[in-house]
Design brief:
The chain is an alpha/beta fold and 305 residues long. 40% of the residues lie in helices and 21% in strands. It folds into two domains: 8-185, HUPs (Rossmann fold); 191-302, Beta Polymerase, domain 2, CATH 3.30.460.10. The chain has helices at 21-33, 57-68, 79-83, 89-97, 121-127, 159-165, 173-185, 191-204, 233-250, 278-284, 286-302, and strands at 8-14, 38-43, 74-76, 101-108, 129-134, 148-152, 208-214, 224-229, 256-259, 263-267, 271-276. The strands form two sheets. It has a six-stranded parallel β-sheet with strand order 3-2-1-4-5-6, with helices on both faces. A five-stranded mixed β-sheet has the order 7-8-11-10-9, sandwiched between helices. Helix 8 (191-204) packs across helix 9. It is elongated, with a radius of gyration of 22 Å. It starts with 7 loop residues before the first strand and ends with a helix.
């Protein structure tokens, strides 16, 4: 039996929100310097350490294809986006290891401060060689890493800076117009202003018994939860579609959603919205569960011990 050796690869994951010339340099230098057969760029559906993104997953995937597809031995892969949820890096490494030998994991030097908090860090640390993209002689604390290599990059702009400063000089011309369009339409409302807008949309379209739960200090997946009754199954879907359309115009995108004629749920990262027929709401008593979360947190605040 012929023993076929698996191709050796490097993985470069991230939000790519938006991807920029620094990312391009990282990919090009990695291809040039690492002993690999292929490099996979893997945009996240949503980063496990973030609650929202500027652009939706499929827009970011399209941007990555535009920037990286022309680079030899580079492949943009939609595995994490197809998962439709936050995917930990260890899961992705195990997925690609089924077909390839994942030798390298490329990270930015800014990841080092939280690296030990990554899911299955010890396993990753034994499995891969970390490739650290760094610039300006940035101090690197690599004491926890088993094997690592440096990839010096002279590109001072980060995706966060681009979003906050709307500085597009480090964005490739092929996607600059698309990024600019999204940035110009980006809202800067507070979470409470956004909640007020959601409640108004639901109320205007005849939703009933609208409740908002503030879970800012509770151990929950969202900071706010909105629950509303629909009149019937058809109304549930109509409310859901109208909400999605109205919020998109305001710059708020559904990161994930699911709907039926009984219950629709929309995930905006820091806000969850549930629309239910009254019978469904009564059966599952979601507000009871959320109220208990809030009360338990209040008790902890009063008596931390």
């Amino acid at each position: 039996m012929v023993n076929h050796k698996k191709p050796t690869i490097a993985l470069f994951g991230g939000s790519f929100d938006p991807p920029h010339k620094g990312h391009q340099l990282i990919v090009e230098k990695a291809i040039e310097n690492l002993q690999i057969d292929k490099l996979f760029v893997v945009p996240a559906y949503i980063n496990p350490f973030k609650t929202s993104t500027l652009a939706d997953a499929h827009t970011r995937l399209s941007w990555c294809h535009t920037l990286f597809d022309s680079i030899d031995r580079v492949k943009v892969d939609d595995y994490e986006i197809q998962e439709g949820k936050s995917t930990v890096t260890s899961q992705s490494v195990k997925h690609f290891n089924q077909t390839y030998n994942v030798k390298y994991l490329i990270i930015g030097s800014d990841n080092l401060s939280t690296l030990t908090k990554w899911h299955a860090f010890e396993w990753l640390n034994e499995t891969v060689t970390w490739v650290i993209a760094t610039r300006d002689n940035h101090h690197l604390d690599t004491d926890e890493l088993n094997t690592w290599e440096l990839l010096p990059i002279e590109a001072p702009m980060s995706s966060t800076q681009i979003r906050e400063e709307k500085d597009l000089q480090f964005i490739d011309k092929k996607i600059r117009t698309s990024v600019k369009h999204i940035l110009e339409g980006q809202h800067h409302m507070t979470i409470d202003e956004r909640i007020a807008g959601i409640v108004k949309i639901l109320d205007d379209k005849k939703a009933e018994e609208i409740e908002v739960f503030n879970l800012e200090d509770a151990d929950y997946i969202a900071k706010r939860v909105v629950i509303a009754n629909s009149l019937n199954g058809k109304h549930t879907l109509a409310l859901f579609d109208h909400l999605k359309r109205e919020l998109k115009e305001q710059g708020d995108e559904f990161l994930a959603s699911d709907s039926s004629d009984e219950w629709a749920v929309a995930d905006l990262g820091d806000i969850l919205i549930h629309i239910m027929i009254p019978e469904y709401r009564q059966r599952y008593s979601l507000e009871t569960f959320l109220s208990e979360l809030v009360e338990n947190q209040k008790k902890k605040d009063i008596d931390p011990a």
